[in-house]
């Protein structure tokens, strides 16, 4: 339950449109001073604090951007943050990080608590399933500019910046097939996450297009961590009479977990079981054997998402864009059968 009034409540109380209230709170050029004064007075009367504190309401801008991410202790998200930070600072904005630890419950709490924060906009990489992002929709309805990146909610119509998950997955599995692997498993993320489903579709279509059977027992859903990769492989090699000869992992962390688990079983990576990931974390070139992967344009995703958010902040009528950036297949030792 939200603790403060929404712009819908203010609009109803004043008998004006939600859009007018939103523009008035932003001090948009097309709202009269009289209307803005009425809106600000009513907002204060109704204890409305979704995006700005009292100072923010007066000044119209706090020059602060919130960034919600699942984690910060891995290469991908730290690189995304670098891209965001460079654009934000060049335009005079500071960023405030919120870490969900891949917890939908913590994500919801953070979003609802943003009503106490002073933000001009929000960048978000979601941890919740795509059909359970009502908390973000409420922020958008309250007038806060939001741009999603990487893991995005499918059903919310707002700007999104993503890597090409489907084609990246397709190319990864196609590479495995071209290397002679035929029994290919997929260790993926949680069900319902848009990224998970797109990479799963790429995996499935690559198998189908190359006349290879899809065994549903070889698709394992779990989290995104290395430990999840280890447990997924343990499951694949203990619960199935027929074991795979290759593994496509939803990200490099899970791929590395898979390699750790395979080594424990004295299974030769590449020669007996090929492994390919998705991200191109620097550790891919350090581990042995080196890990084949699909490189994600993390830095570009960060820059583009921040650029879009700043456009939304400056222009409330800006129509949302969906930007999809291509990845690159990088072949290393983990998919060599020699």
Automatic annotation (TrEMBL):
SUPFAM superfamilies: lambda repressor-like DNA-binding domains, Periplasmic binding protein-like I. PROSITE patterns: HTH_LACI_2 (PS50932). The keyword DNA-binding applies. Residues 5-59 form the HTH lacI-type domain. Pfam families: LacI (PF00356), Peripla_BP_3 (PF13377). It comes from the Bacteria. Keywords: DNA-binding, Transcription, Transcription regulation. GO terms for molecular function: DNA-binding transcription factor activity; transcription cis-regulatory region binding. PANTHER family: HTH-TYPE TRANSCRIPTIONAL REGULATOR GALS, LACI-RELATED TRANSCRIPTIONAL REPRESSOR. This is Transcriptional regulator, LacI family. The lineage of its organism: Bacteria, Pseudomonadati, Bacteroidota, Cytophagia, Cytophagales.
